[in-house]
Each structure stands twice: as structure tokens, then as C-alpha cells.
């Protein structure tokens, strides 16, 4: 009955992250050495940007759509 009232809640141990700088997919726990970090001009642009918005979580359903034909 709880399922009918509240719906199915999907929880994952960890989701893949997408780096908005270089478009790389990575696991947050492992980390990501972004290649854009090596560009001084790009670093100047990032000074006024919220760093938490640079990595976007990708749910499993969206990840699988990358490979659907």
C-alpha cells in the first residue's frame, strides 16, 4: 500500500557525473582531473562560477539513453 501512496523511490549508491567543462563522464568518488583546468584562459572564466554546478549527476535511465538506437 505504501507503494501506491508514494510511488517508487529510486535511490542509488552513486551516480555518474558529467563535467560541463570537458563533457567527460566520471564517478564522483574517484574524482575527475579536468583537462580544462590546465587552460589559464578557461580558469579566468571559472572564477565567478559556482563550482558545484560544473558537475551534473546523470541518472541510470539517462545514461542508458546515450546508447539507445
UniProtKB/TrEMBL annotation:
The keyword Ubl conjugation does not apply. Keywords: Ubl conjugation pathway. InterPro entries: FBX25/32. It comes from Coptotermes formosanus (Formosan subterranean termite). The keyword Cytoplasm does not apply. This is Uncharacterized protein. Pathway: Protein modification; protein ubiquitination. Signal peptide: none annotated. It comes from the Eukaryota. One of its GO terms (cellular component) is nucleus. GO terms for biological process: protein ubiquitination.
Amino acid at each position: 500500500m505504501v507503494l501506491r501512496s508514494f510511488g517508487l523511490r529510486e535511490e542509488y549508491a552513486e551516480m555518474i557525473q558529467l563535467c560541463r567543462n570537458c563533457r567527460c563522464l566520471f564517478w564522483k568518488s574517484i574524482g575527475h582531473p579536468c583537462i580544462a583546468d590546465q587552460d589559464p584562459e578557461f580558469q579566468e572564466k571559472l572564477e565567478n562560477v559556482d563550482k558545484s554546478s560544473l558537475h551534473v549527476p546523470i541518472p541510470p535511465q539517462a545514461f542508458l539513453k546515450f546508447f539507445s538506437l
